[in-house]
What we know:
Number of domains: 1
Strand content: 25-35%
Distance between the termini: 18 Å
Amino acid sequence: MSKKENILISACFLGTNCRYDGRTVELSSLDQLKKKYNLIPICPEIIGGLETPRKPAEIRNNKVINSLGQDVTNNFVIGAREALKLAKLNKCRYALLKERSPSCGYGKIYDGTFSGTLIGGNGVTAELLAQNGIIVLGESQISKLLN
């Protein structure tokens, strides 16, 4: 049997209550994913020093601002750098991350107005991983990892 490949995955998909609202996200294909890959969990926001639960945050003018107007960019940058270190250490070619998140979103994120409006863009961690050659996928693209 060949050795399973490691992939970085948002910890909230694995049952860790680490989202801003203290919840998890159910991933319907998790069992299939576990059979094919070694899953390396990450929550950049927690690693960056934020608590759970926490105020929601969105990217506005290249800064991450929470719903109280506080700049939490530094926490997101620290978390992104640590996520990249973990991905490199574990030789991850892929990252399966939570869509629309200001840290993990890839392709579409919220616009910074807390109105639920999506715009093209990447979260802080997703962007750093992609810049370093890691293929970032959101949960709606899980089938690409299972083919």
